[in-house]
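Listing S7. Sequence submitted for prediction.
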Amino acid sequence: MPGPDRQAVEVAVDVPGTPAGRFRWTICALLFFATTVNYADRQILGILAPTLQKEIGWSESQYGLIVTAFQGAYAIGLLGMGRFIDRVGTRLGYSLALGWWSIAAMLHGLAASALGFGCARFLLGLGEAGNFPAAIKTVAEWFPKRERALATGIFNSGSNAGAILAPLLVPWLTLAFGWRWAFAILGGAGLFWIVAWVLIYREPARHARLSRAELDYIRSEPAESDAHIPWRVLIANRPVWGLLLARFITDPVWWLYLFWGPKFLNSQFGWKLDQIGVPLAATYLVSSAGGIFGGWFYSRLMERGRGNNAARKLAMLACALMVLPIVLAPRVSSPWLATGLISLAMAGHCGWAANIFTIVSDLFPKRAVSSVVGICGFGGATGGMLVSSAVGFVLQATGSYLTIFALASCSYLVGLSIIHLMSPRLETVNLEAA
């Protein structure tokens, strides 16, 4: 998802009808910074891939397997981290996850072979899996339903902030100090976030800086039971499978941009390490706006009288249509036009993500949110793991991105169809009855 400013950052967001008090947006700011660190750390390898491929000597298929190691661990970690965070809470769980992945990111600087990078990526994936279950659970705890899509869109835009900073900082650090220091410096930045999180974060009911009016607003929905919900109950629900399958299909497309975007621009248009930073930063800047658009558009539809089901699916449809033009990216002759097409598709993905993450807190009680996010994220990471290996072998065999981008363009429409089939009305799931 750079080392954030560790002061309590107040983010002013005006929502009609809300009471005085915006401290919940300070918590959202902390989630934004954690997600920024998360994506900066995972983006380093993609930026340095052309350089490391020459220096270390790995093949396209080996690079695909290195990426697969990260995603396999990410899938495993999502299952464990989701349940772990539901058990121990976000304050402790988030701190441990971020500390783990920061150290793992720094360990990349010690790698000297494809196997070494594969091991470091595996450790990184285990730790980074804790970010989204913890962040989505925090949003469910600190925001009423009407604001969750917007809050999710804001914190999820940290993924783009991290991916903007990484291509600006990594080439400079590499050219100035060497690629090993790029991993060490950016990886270590996340350790500062833990200090701010431990000092600032408490549950809403126990936070001294939260006013009674704002706490009442956060708790404006009916109270929920605290009873433990076993996995067997969660995985027996059709909505869980709908979200899992949708993410199995669409998450790999984001991994494609993250890990093969720099390689695509390098191989297709010849852009080198010192040329690629600004174009990559531009793609993530545009996609950050897409994440906020996805949450805003849903809120706008709700304000105009659309129900949750229609508003959520229309917002996701708009985002899915933004991805369609990506099929043209390998066919254009201008690198900046290709960058624009990739940027539009990435913006569509981020708007889609803001909504598909928030569906979990729409349908499931807060005490199950991290577990459901973890289960569905497991589906997305598994899809990414399979696709990453396949992309590596396809590129080694054909050298062409045509088929890869063609499949990516229609993935979101298929994913939305699955969600509609499994949850035609997006009704709240009664887990107590189950």
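Caption to Listing S7: primary sequence and predicted structure tokens for the chain studied. Residues 1-17 have pLDDT under 50 and may be disordered. Residues 23-220+231-422 form a domain with the Growth Hormone; Chain: A; fold (CATH 1.20.1250.20).
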